[in-house]
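Recall that a protein's primary structure is simply its ordered list of amino acids. Everything else, from secondary elements to tertiary packing, is in principle encoded there. The following example makes that idea concrete.
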Amino acid sequence: MKLGNRLGGTTSGDKAAAYVLKKFKSHGLTAVKIEDPERLTYTNNGWLLQVEEPRTLKRLFENERPAGFSPSVSARKTSLVFLNPELDFDPAQVESVGVLVPFPIAHDVYEKFVEAGALCVLSFAPNADGSYENWALLTDLPSSPDNSIPVFNISVRNGEALKKELIAEKKVVIKYSTKTTVKSGRPKTIVATLSGDSDEYYLVCGHGDSDCGGPGADDNSSGV
C-alpha cells in the first residue's frame, strides 16, 4: 500500500508494475512488461466521510471508499435521506441532500440522482449471507471526468445503522469530501515465464487482482 492505490495506468500502478517486474527478474524468471491501450484512469488521493449527527455515530465509518470515477468535491455537510430499492421517488426528496440506498448504484440510477439534484450517495450491498458486513463492495461510476457527485461505498453494518436512524425519522448529518484525479493512462501487465523440462504440459497462473475499485479478479479461479 506504500505505492498508493495501484490502479492500472496511474502513477502508483506504474510503480507497482515496475516493482513486480524487478522481483520476477531477481528470482531468475523471464519477465516482460506489456502496455495496454490508453484509457481513462482514476486515482483516489484522499477522502473524508463521517457522521456529524447523531454524535453517537461519529466514529461509524472505517472501511468505506468512494466509487471509482467519483469527482473531487470540497468538504461540506448534508443531511441524509433513505430510499427503498424500488427507486420510485419524487425528485424533491433528494434535492440538495445526501442519499442512502441499500444496493449498488447502476449508471442509469446515478444519472437520476444527479438530475434530481442530490449532493452525494451512500451505497451498501444487499445483506446476503453476511457478505460485505464490515467492508464496502467496491463499484465504479461511468468512466468519465465529468461525473457530478461522489458515491461512497459503505459496509452493510454501517448502512443498516444509518437506515435504522432514518426510518425512525431521526436526523442524520454527514460531512464528506473527495480528492481525485481522472486522466488518460496505459495500464501495465507483467508476464513472467518459468521454464520447465517439457513442453508437453503447461501450467498457467494468473492473479489479476486490484485495489480501490479498479478492474481485476479475486484469485486464480477467476484470474485465469
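The chain has five helices and nine strands. The two ends are 24 Å apart (CA to CA).
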